[in-house]
Design brief:
With about 350 residues, the protein is of the alpha+beta class. The chain contains twelve helices and 13 strands. It folds into three domains: about 90 residues, Rossmann fold; about 170 residues, ATP-grasp fold, B domain (D-amino Acid Aminotransferase, Chain A, domain 1, 2-Layer Sandwich), CATH 3.30.470; about 55 residues, 2-Layer Sandwich (Dna Ligase, domain 1), CATH 3.30.1490.20. The strands form three sheets. It has a five-stranded antiparallel sheet with strand order 11-10-9-12-13. A four-stranded parallel sheet has the order 3-2-1-4. Strands 5-8-6-7 form a four-stranded antiparallel sheet, with helices on one face. Strand 2, helix 2 and strand 3 form a beta-alpha-beta unit. Helix 1 packs across helix 12. It starts with a strand and ends in a 9-residue tail after the last helix. Bound molecules: adenosine monophosphate. Adenosine monophosphate (AMP) binds next to strand 6, strand 10, strand 12 and strand 13.
Length: about 350
Amino acid sequence: MNTTISTLGSHCSLQVLKGAKDEGFNTLLICEKKRYKLYKRFSFIDKLLLVDTYHDILSQEFQNQLNELNCILIPHGTLISYLKPDQIESLKVPIFGNKYILRWEADRHLKQKMMINAKLNTPKSIENKFDIDRLCIAKLHGAAGGKGYFLAHDKNSFEQASSKLINEHIISNESELYLQEYVMGVPAFIHYFFSPLSNDVELMGADRRYESDIDGIGRVPSRHQNNVNLEPTYNVIGNIPIVLRESLLTDVYEMGDNFVEASKSLISPGIIGPFCLEGVYTSDGKFVTFEFSARIVAGTNLYVNGSQYSNLFFNEEMSMGKRIATEIKNALGSAKLGKILS
Ligand code: AMP
């Protein structure tokens, strides 16, 4: 095959390129120089293209290089956190999936519109700090991996925590924060794949995140917590697998189907390939979705050998990375590449 699968070196790049290699593609990693030592260890990466920063991919010269190698670029969280939606849309390299939907992930208002259209239960948005009348979570915009998030229960606690972020130059203004009702329950991230070729929504796995230091706070007895004024943060360190109660799967599929339909009506041709619904299961087993990702999420790194769910559909170990590669291979084989690229 003379098609090359390429991605940025971070997030889930190992899984994506391993899957691509297993499916017979050439593989190329766009790699920051500081990460070269890590990525040169993996023999399934055919070519490493070194850059000073991922912004370098915006140059036409760099994109020409990718096009000469017949590259398809797989977007993931790092692409979204480095480049603005306009910049991603301006790329002249074929991107797997619908690159225009990535704007809907990055923009809180579009995101909310998509979730409402998909009939998902969502937490209440709190418009400003004077309206904080319950436990809330304050979030930074964009794919920050939970960094800088904090909890607030009233205006004062919000101001205290946000001025800390301002002092640390993480934000320059309170208005950069997005406030949402805090939903009590257990978090779950549900990984799906939508194939425009077969028209199927596939459940590929689920995970929860392991976050510092909200997941460490329970290791400190409450008398110490009260005395040292701990402010939990939500910086993602890793992921933990989840198998859902089977009786929850009816809703899981319905949510996935509804999301696909909503995406088709709002940003044609809709979602293509991986996406993730991210939320909290409350005590009555209802899922409240606080976010979605319109591309592969890093939680899928858990399932390089397939998951409990992907093993039900496929007679081989199917990671999300490999699933992307098989979709591209099937599209190439049936001359339908136009259906899965943008
Ligand atoms: P995010 O980066 O928005 O996916 O969220 C990072 C973490 O914040 C999640 O793993 C959850 O633990 C937590 N979180 C985000 N939004 C909410 C919410 N509305 N209610 C409860 N927890 C939340």
